[in-house]
Amino acid sequence: MCVLMVKLSYSFFLFVCLFFSSPCCQRSTSCVMLVVILACLTVLGIVLAIIVLERPPPPKIHKTLPEDPDGDSTDQCRMALVESIPQYVKYKDNVTLGIPLEEVWKDLISMATDQVEVASFYWTLTGEDINVNSSSDLPGKNILKQLEELPSRNVSVRVVTSVPSVRTNSTDLKLLKEKGVQVRKVNFGRLTHGVLHSKFWVVDSKHVFIGSANMDWRALTQVKELGVVIYNCSSLAKDLHKIFQSYWVMGQPNSSLPQPWPSQYDTDINKEHPLLVEADNVSSRIYLAGSPPSFFPPSRTQDLEAILSIISEAQHYVDVAVMEYFPTTRFERPQRYWPVIDDAIRVAAFEKKVKIRMLISCGRDSDPAMLPFLQSLASMDSPHHNISIQIKLFIVPVGNQSDIPYSRVNHNKYMVTDTVAYVGTSNWSGDYFLTTAGVGLVISQQAPYPVKTKALQSQLRAVFDRDWRSEFALTLILVSSW
User: Which pairing describes strands 123-124 and 215-216: parallel, antiparallel, or unpaired?
Assistant: First the structure.
């Protein structure tokens, strides 16, 4: 284009030279003025053409396809909130609840016709795995049985999990392999000094589930979980498959992280280029983020980057529900101070006057070392200076379930702001974003008020409000050091 501009300018320059050298022009003042005006107009046109043609293209947005004219289901991307509420936890009537996790898992299994891919930190779908005799493991046993039957229906099943850092008695994967399920364990300890902490499903390259729930019977009846299921969304499912495939190839013996990752792992769906979905008069922009950085090509938005951008772009409020919150590393030795997310929260509250609410889990296995960091954050709360940071601890009643280890806990990992719903698989401390495998689903939504309640972002806010105002949430007590 620049070459064309140069040629046009040169041609006009020759014209002007010839015109001024002509006898007619030398005898006529009006002729000279006309040429000057034409010269100015031409230069202006050239400048405008350069501005227009050299302007960078607008951000790329991937639109889902409308319904196929032949009647086939294409990229409709129907989204729903998914929850698991522990037994004996009762809310008041008329509160927002997600679809039960057990129901969603059974639904995904029943509709599978080609392939099911599952990534999970670990597998314990029966009580015997942890030497517990409890009828509350029946839903887990049923899920395991249904997964075992998939190969007999000619449905391929692939499972990736983390090489366990602690020996378990689980026989789930052994039983699945005997039924024809392909299983690989990824040694993240060797590859990144972390673990595979992701939890997601990809079904038939068009349905996905992402959330906090591991393949654990306790996730169905004893632990409070939250996730999102998206049906008929092949663009997003194929993108999530790329993440699964990166785990799968790293599950081979003697694997090593490629530098750089081959082009088949690149994505064109990210923070800059989200997937645009229009459904029920709700406009959604969706992308997947991942961690750790060494496990993805540069085109994949990092999970930490997604979280930081969501906090910084919030205009009115940021609500966070996570099991653990530490502005440090947790598992490396020596531990390091890691205030990246903590700083972003403080900046949003102090500089932009964004209202912060944080719901942190408190259970038998919670580390009390969290409390000083949470109290430090909460101490910034100052209505007089229009700074609002409120923190509550969410306690799941143990009741008569005390014999079940690592249960009765709020395992949620999500954030919701004015327009964004974020559902992840990681706790909020340094290791989860530096060395550990995790996935975050980012959904930015806009909807007119009559249908706003249909938006997943609005539903997630309602779930947060439900928990925040419930009898299970207790305000963090500030302890003065004076």
Answer: parallel
Using the structure block, give the residue that is written with the tokens 């350069």: 50
Q: What 8-state DSSP symbol labels residue 127?
A: G
HSE-CB for 326 with a 13 A CA cutoff: 21
For residue 258, give the amino acid letter: P
In this structure, how many other beta carbons lie within 10 angstroms of the beta carbon of residue 248? 19
Are the C-beta atoms of residues 430 and 326 closer than 8 Å to each other?
yes
Catalytic residue from among 204, 266, 381, 465: 204
How many angstroms separate the CA atoms of 247 and 261, rounded?
A: 12
Active site residue 411: yes
The label of the residue with tokens 């010839």 reads 18
**Active site (annotated) includes residue 241:** no
Angle (deg, nearest 10), helices 138-149 and 101-111:
10
Is the pLDDT assigned to residue 18 strictly greater than 80?
Answer: no
Percent of the chain with pLDDT over 70: 83
Strand, coil or helix: 366: coil
Q: Which domains does the chain have, with CATH numbers?
A: 76-475 (3.30.870.10)
Nearest alpha-carbon partner for 159 in 137, 186, 193: 186
Does residue 428 register a pLDDT over 60?
A: yes
Q: What is the reported pTM? A: 0.85
197 counts as catalytic: yes
The two three-digit tokens of residue 222, written as one number: 């004893």
Average model confidence (pLDDT) for the chain? 87
Q: Which pairing describes strands 115-120 and 156-162: parallel, antiparallel, or unpaired?
A: parallel
Dmax (CA) for the chain in angstroms is 110
204 is annotated as an active-site residue: yes
Give me the catalytic one of 411, 413, 431, 467.
411
Would you place residue 279 in the very low, low, confident or very high pLDDT band (cuts 50, 70, 90)?
confident
124 sits in which H/E element: strand 123-124
Residue range 276-304: average pLDDT? 94
d(CA 239, CA 423): 16
Tokens representing 131 are 């030497």
Determine the average pLDDT of the residues in 293-308. Answer: 97
Catalytic residue among 197, 206, 271, 392: 197
Looking at residue 321, its amino acid is: A
Report the pLDDT averaged over residues 167-185. Answer: 92
Buried b (16+ CB within 10 A) or exposed e, 260-278: ebeeebebebbbebbbebe
What number of other Cβ atoms are within 10 A of residue 75's Cβ? Answer: 20
Q: What is the pLDDT of residue 328?
A: 98
**How far, in Å, CA of 400 to CA of 39, rounded?**
90
Q: Where are the alpha helices (DSSP H) in 95-229?
A: 101-111, 138-149, 172-178, 188-191, 217-221
| Options 129, 137, 172, 199, the catalytic residue | 199
